[in-house]
Amino acid sequence: MSRQFKNILTILFFLICIGVINTAGQNIELEIRGVNAFTFTLIVAVLLQVIFFIPSFLLKTEKYYDLVGSLTYVTTVSLAYFSVETKTMIDSIIYFYVMVWALRLGIYLFRRVRNDGKDVRFEKAKRHFFWFLQYWMGQALWVSLTACAAIIAILSPEEDTLPVLAMSGMALWLSGFTIESLSDYQKRVFRKENNPSEAFIHTGLWARSRHPNYFGEIMLWTGIAVIALNTLTGIEYITLVSPVFVYILLTRMSGVNLLERIADERYGHLEEYQRYKRNTPVLVPKLSKDKI
C-alpha cells in the first residue's frame, strides 16, 4: 500500500471520527445560521485547518500549525458561548478555562517553533501534500474531540448553580494547568541555558516525570469533563471521550512515543540519561526525585 493511499485513508478516518462525535450534539436545539450549533462548530474546526493548510503547504512551513490549533479552540468555543442567550456560571467557567489554556499554549508553542526555526514533527511531512494535510486534519480531530464536552456543556441548558462535582472539576483543571504551565516554563528556561541537542532537562517537575506537561494536559481536560458532567444527558455522554482521547493522543500517538524516540537518539549514549530514564516515571509524577 502506497504512502499516499495510506494518508488518504487516514484523512477519511479523521473525518469519519468527527462525523461520529457529531451525533453527540444532535439533541442541541440551538442553531447557528440554520445549522445545529454543535455541528456548526465542527465544520468551522475543519474549515480553519483547510484554510491555513493551503498557504502553509505552499510555503513549506509549520510555524503557524500550533497557533492555528489554539485559534480553532478559541473560535469554536467562542461561537458556542456567544450563541447562548442565557449564560450560566458553568458556561462562563468552562469558556474562561478553555480561553486561558488555548491562548497560553498557542503563544508558547508559536514562540518555541519561531525560536527553533522548525518543528521536527514536520521535517518530512511538510513537503508532501497528503502527508502534511493529514496533520492538519488530525488537528481538526484533536480540537473537535478534546473540546466536545466543553462545547456541549456550554450549548446545553442547565440551572445556574455550581454543584460540588463542578467544583471538583475546577480543582482538577487548576492543578493540571499549573503543572503544565510550570513544566513548560522550566523547559523554556532550560533550553535558553543549554543546547537541547546535547543536554536533557531533569530538574524541577522534570525530575519527577519525563513528561509532566502532558500529565498536566490530561488532568486539566479531565477537569473540564468533570465540570461538564452535570450538564450532559443521553447520547451527550459520548463527549466524555475527551480526556480519554487526550490521554491516547499524548501517550500512544504523537506525544510521548515521538519524544521518547528523539531523546533516545540524542542522549541514549549518556549514562546519566539511562539512569534518569530508569528512575523517572514516563507520565505520572512521583512524590520524590532522584539525583542524576
Brief write-up:
This protein has one domain.
Explain what the structure shows.
This protein has 10 helices and 2 strands. With 292 residues, the chain is mainly alpha-helical. The chain has one domain. A two-stranded antiparallel ribbon has the order 1-2. Strand 1 and strand 2 form a beta hairpin. Helix 5 packs antiparallel against helix 8. It is globular, with a radius of gyration of 20 Å.
The largest sheet, given as strand count, sense and whether it forms a barrel, is: 2 strands, antiparallel
**Count of individual helical segments:** 10
Average pLDDT works out at: 88
Terminal CA distance: 46 Å
- Helix/strand order: HEEHHHHHHHHH
Q: Numbering strands along the chain, what is their spatial order in the largest sheet? A: 1-2
What oligomerization state is this entry in? single chain
Number of strands: 2
How many discrete domains? 1
Tell me, what's the shape?
globular
Uncertain stretches: none
Q: What's the helical proportion of residues?
A: 55-70%
Which structural category fits the helices and strands? mainly alpha
> How much of the polypeptide forms β-strand, as a percent range?
under 5%
Cα Rg: 20 Å
